Known about the structure:
This protein is an alpha/beta fold. It is built from 14 helices and 12 strands. The strands form 3 sheets. It has an 8-stranded parallel beta sheet with strand order 4-11-10-9-8-7-6-5. α6 (149-161) links the parallel β6 (138-143) and β7. α1 packs antiparallel against α13 (316-348) and α4 (101-112) runs parallel beside α5. The chain is globular.
Amino acid sequence: MTTVYTTSNAEGPIDFINMYDLEEMAKEVIPKGGYGYINSGAGDVFTYRENERAFDHRLIIPHVLKDVELPTTEVTFMDEKLRAPIIMAPIAAHGLANMKGEEATAKGVADFGSIFSISSYASRTIAQIREAAGPEACQWFQLYMSKDDGINIDILAQAKASGAKAIILTADATVGGNRETDKRNGFTFPLPMPIVQAYQSGVGQTMDAVYGSSKQKLSPRDVEFIAKNSSLPVFVKGIQSEEDVERALSAGANGIWVSNHGGRQLDGGPATFDSLQYVARAVDKRVPIIFDSGVRRGQHVFKAIASGADLVAIGRPAIYGLALGGAAGVKQVFEFFQKELEMVMQLAGTQTVADITQAKLRANHYI
């Protein structure tokens, strides 16, 4: 007998103070297996926890008498005007959190005025996600590569036809991390993955099986393949070292995405924020840098940009907003980060996002 997966159908404003409250509230409306998949990290969750703690390693210096009032968070990135330097990270199966799935998330992000990243493992088709967001919305597409290049070419063609402005190659998930919460819950995906249906149904599959059906042996040739077959900018996601920066850029990557997959892959690895300074130094402004993992506060966004990131991507917080408020909840989460960032900017004496890039953080010697 097949069990029907029933989750939230919420749509509307949420009453919350911060992202930690939102996380606890979402636990009450997302089914246990789905919440465990979204919320958990790998192994001992050391890296998962370090992602948040690492922001305390560097301190924002308050500044006064800087002639700052009503700071603006607006930025232009790849000719796109964004309301803030905050975008949506690619996350699988939004339908686990809300029955409207990626359609609601994409609409919320578009209504806010930012970029939505479509996951290959979405629970909606590329066309459905595009339609929900509207023709003017900026969307990127994240590719988990198939072992069959013909399938890869077809998926890239779909993404390009839908108006995707860039391709994200997630390179740090060629095998599933040790996600013990999923094992305890006996979690398997209850929803289809229509974008990759040519090689993976999704339904009834563990995360290990999903990753096992995709390509494990990634190399610089895959960056070249994606660029050739999409004619779109390629961001390589999962970079945490200087060596990988050079490998990706030598292959023609147009951007570097600093991420440890939200602490869901290699436990015992560094926090993404601790890796950012090394990556930024290696990139040396040759290409843009996107940053994610552990972002829960406006000050985290500020610190990431001051440390070399051009854009900051959020993941779990937006999914919690989706669960509790649908498209409106997602927009509200983005507004939360924007408002906190504006407050931090005012107190740090920075009028614009460009000013943040010039801000000097102080090392915290007390932890």
